[in-house]
Amino acid sequence: MTKKLTRSSIDKSISGVCGGIAAYFNLSSLFVRLLFLFFIPFNLIIYMILANVMPASPTSLYQK
Fold first, then answer.
1. Distance between alpha carbon 31 and the CA centroid of its chain, in Å?
2. Could you tell me how far CA 49 lies from the centroid of its own chain?
3. CB 51 within 8 A of CB 12
4. Whole-angstrom Cα distance, residue 11 to residue 56?
5. pLDDT (tens digit, 9 = 90+) per residue, 13-44?
6. Which residues contact 58 (CB under 8 A, 6 or more apart)?
7. What is the b/e burial string over 5-26, where b = at least 16 CB atoms within 10 angstroms of the residue's CB?
8. Taking the model in full, what pTM does it have?
9. CA-to-CA distance for 40 and 46, rounded, in angstroms?
10. Which of 20, 22, 30, 38 is the Cys-Cys partner for 7 at CB 3.0 to 4.6 Å?
C-alpha cells in the first residue's frame, strides 16, 4: 500500500498541511510546524500553495 500526501483532517491548526506532512514522514506535527515557523518568508508561500493543492484526507466516522 502506498502512502499519499494529504492534508490532515484530525491534526490541523489552520488547514492541516503540517499535520499531513508529519503523518507522511512519521514525524511530530510540532516539529514540522516549528520548521515552517523558522523559515517564514519562503515557507509562507509554500504553505499557501500546499493548502490549495494537497487533497484532504478522507474523513472517518471514528475520528479522535
1. 12
2. 12
3. no
4. 12
5. 888 888 888 989 999 989 988 988 887 778 88
6. 9
7. ebbbeebbeebbbbbbbbbeee
8. 0.77
9. 10
10. 20
56/3 Cα distance (integer angstroms)? 14
* Non-local CB neighbours of 31 within 8 Å, separated by 6+ positions: 22
Q: Give the dihedral of Cα atoms 18, 6, 59, 2; nearest 10 deg.
A: -130
- 41 contact partners, CB below 8 Å, separation of at least 6: none
| Cell numbers standing for residue 34 | 516549528
Cell numbers for 24, please give them: 507522511
What separation in angstroms does the CA of 61 have from each of 10, 25, 31? 12, 24, 28
